[in-house]
């Protein structure tokens, strides 16, 4: 079926799983690749900064070494000698060697140190024996340094030293009185191999490298020794100068990225390079891993979604087939799946429903058969009821004739008895009014007491304390008179005495109207009272099945209790309080209402 539930469930699962995988995979790959790129850029920047920092520290350490020479009195004495004076030169040169020796010992990478004064003084010392030493070339080199305006009182680094494979660390010695008046030149010849050793220890991946150029584009260091000392290509040098402190590409270097930074101390520019392929390899691996894992997860999720959908649809189909058979009249019960989940609970509920429906249909069928059998009996009873309606009218007419004869015979007693009996009979057999007013019930008791006066051969008044505000409230017909009659039968078994009283009272709360009938008769023992109140609390069906009286007169009380509950509901009815030898109090609870009912 095109619109089957299994297809819908499977389709929804496919959409949800695919959307989730695509969203998580793409987002994760995008975020991870960005993070990796940022990490590579940060790593490249950090390596360049570390190399520059280590190089500057290396060079600055020799600047501190020159200070020990500058503050030496021997240096001051030698530079202060008269110009071209040969006296004391030899002595000063010997003393200068004593100043140079500690520096050379502590810094074995310095091959040569020297001081040349403008007064003609010259002192040199070597860490190694240099043979032959070109003194003429050295003097020419010193003359060039004197004329170089870039060299001043600060330590200056010359990439091309006097000695091959060396750097020259040189500074001019100023007069104490004027920083612009120079008295000589002091320099070190430093083995560039020491820096090469430092630089070779820096690794930039498998194919990464870096090189160092000075401010004129001359290559000071390169992993390819053949390029050291050569000039960097002009276009490359311009690109490096224009893209300092950022990632860039060099013309003619495809597939590589570069980062450059210039040292403020040495003036050198360090350029680091990494392969784009090597940099992007983790990203490519991440992409492949994400793709493979996503495809595998999708296949596994689709399989699980299919199994899950089947686990839901299979019981539904069983229920559907069972309902189709039940609709045809075959009471079919569905077997449980054995999973003990909500589907099994649903199947159990369906089987229970089928069982109850089957029982209900059979019961309805049997009831229908009984109803057909009772139909004739009901019609016969209605016919007999129509016939019996003649009898009350006959009784009313007869009682009226008796009253007429009592008037002719001037017998007021007979007239009162018959008139009260006629009212009570008419009030009792009416079926059109089930709920009447409290006033109607009290009027009925009035006629009842009129007859009891002649039966007991004495006057007896009931103490009615019901407020006039409650007289129009509704109550069930024939509820007070049976309670009063029950008092005369059972509360006063030895007859009525002057001390006997019957009190009828009423009150209300927010929901109920309470009417009480209280006497000071013999009372009820505790066991009988408990049984009677228990029967009041039981269901109507149980009271009807167990209609045996707990004591004489309880049937009348149960009748009143049942009629109240049939009219107002199960929460209403009678309750009894009694103490043996003290008296009994019967309370009627009914819903509070001020609705007026047509009096009888």
From TrEMBL:
Signal peptide: none annotated. Keywords: ATP-binding, Cell membrane, Kinase, Membrane, Nucleotide-binding, Phosphoprotein, Transferase, Transmembrane, Transmembrane helix, Two-component regulatory system. Its EC number is 2.7.13.3. The chain crosses the membrane at residues 9-30, 291-309. The keyword Protein transport does not apply. It is found in: Cell membrane. One of its GO terms (molecular function) is kinase activity. Residues 407-594 form the Histidine kinase domain. It is a multi-pass membrane protein. It catalyses: ATP + protein L-histidine = ADP + protein N-phospho-L-histidine. Its main location: membrane. It holds the Pfam family HATPase_c. Residues 310-362 form the HAMP domain. Gene3D superfamilies: 6.10.340.10, Histidine kinase-like ATPase, C-terminal domain, PAS domain. PANTHER family: SENSOR HISTIDINE KINASE YPDA (PTHR34220:SF7). This is histidine kinase. It comes from Paenibacillus chondroitinus.
């Amino acid at each position: 079926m095109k619109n089957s539930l299994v297809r819908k469930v499977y389709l929804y699962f496919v959409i949800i799983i695919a959307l989730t995988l695509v969203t998580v995979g793409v987002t994760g790959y995008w975020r991870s690749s960005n993070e990796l790129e940022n990490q590579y850029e940060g790593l490249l920047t950090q390596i360049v900064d570390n190399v520059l920092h280590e190089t500057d520290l290396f060079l600055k350490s020799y600047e501190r070494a020159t200070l020990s020479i500058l503050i030496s009195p021997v240096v001051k004495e030698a530079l202060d000698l008269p110009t071209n004076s040969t006296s004391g030169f030899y002595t000063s040169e010997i003393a200068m060697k004593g100043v140079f020796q500690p520096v050379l010992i502590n810094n074995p990478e310095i091959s040569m140190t020297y001081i040349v004064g403008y007064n003609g003084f010259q002192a040199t010392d070597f860490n190694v024996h240099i043979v032959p030493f070109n003194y003429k070339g050295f003097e020419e080199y010193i003359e060039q340094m004197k004329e170089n305006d870039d060299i001043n009182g600060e330590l200056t680094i010359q990439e091309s030293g006097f000695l091959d494979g060396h750097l020259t660390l040189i500074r001019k010695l100023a007069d104490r009185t004027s920083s612009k008046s120079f008295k000589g030149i002091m320099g070190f010849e430093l083995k560039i191999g020491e820096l090469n050793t430092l630089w070779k220890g820096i690794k930039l991946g498998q194919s990464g490298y870096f090189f160092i150029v000075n401010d004129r584009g001359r290559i000071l260091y390169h992993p390819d020794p053949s390029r050291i000392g050569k000039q960097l290509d002009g276009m490359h040098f311009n690109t490096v100068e224009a893209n300092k402190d950022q990632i860039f590409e060099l013309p003619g270097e495809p597939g590589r990225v570069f980062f450059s930074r210039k040292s403020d101390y040495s003036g050198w520019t360090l350029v680091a390079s990494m392969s784009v392929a090597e940099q992007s390899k983790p990203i490519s691996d991440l992409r492949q891993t994400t793709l493979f894992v996503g495809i595998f997860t999708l296949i596994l999720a689709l399989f699980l979604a299919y199994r899950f959908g089947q686990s839901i649809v299979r019981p539904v189909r069983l229920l559907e087939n069972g309902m189709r058979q039940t609709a045809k009249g075959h009471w079919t019960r569905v077997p449980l799946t054995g999973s003990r989940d909500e589907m099994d609970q649903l199947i159990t509920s369906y089987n229970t429903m089928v069982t109850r429906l089957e029982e209900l249909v059979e019961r309805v069928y049997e009831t229908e058969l009984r109803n057909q059998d009772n139909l004739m009996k009901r019609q016969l009873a209605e016919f007999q009821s129509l016939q019996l309606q003649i009898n009350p009218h006959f009784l009313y007419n007869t009682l009226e004739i008796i009253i007429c004869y009592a008037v002719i015979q001037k017998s007021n007693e007979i007239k009162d008895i018959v008139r009260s009996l006629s009212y009570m009979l008419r009030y009792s057999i009416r079926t059109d009014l089930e709920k009447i007013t409290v006033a109607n019930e009290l009027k009925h008791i009035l006629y009842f007491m009129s007859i009891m006066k002649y039966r007991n051969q004495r006057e007896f008044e009931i103490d009615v304390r019901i407020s006039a505000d409650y007289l129009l409230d509704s109550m069930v017909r024939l509820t007070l008179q049976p309670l009063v009659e029950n008092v005369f039968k059972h509360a006063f078994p030895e007859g009525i005495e002057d001390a006997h009283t019957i009190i009828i009272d009423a009150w209300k709360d927010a929901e109920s109207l309470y009417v009480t009938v209280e006497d000071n008769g013999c009372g009820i023992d505790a066991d009988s009272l408990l049984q009677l109140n228990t029967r009041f609390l039981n269901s109507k069906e149980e009271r009807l099945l167990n209609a045996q009286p707990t004591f004489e007169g309880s049937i009348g009380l149960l009748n009143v209790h049942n009629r109240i509950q049939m009219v107002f509901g199960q929460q209403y009815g009678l309750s009894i309080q009694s103490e043996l030898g003290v008296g009994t109090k019967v309370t009627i609870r009914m819903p509070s209402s001020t609705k007026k009912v047509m009096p009888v």
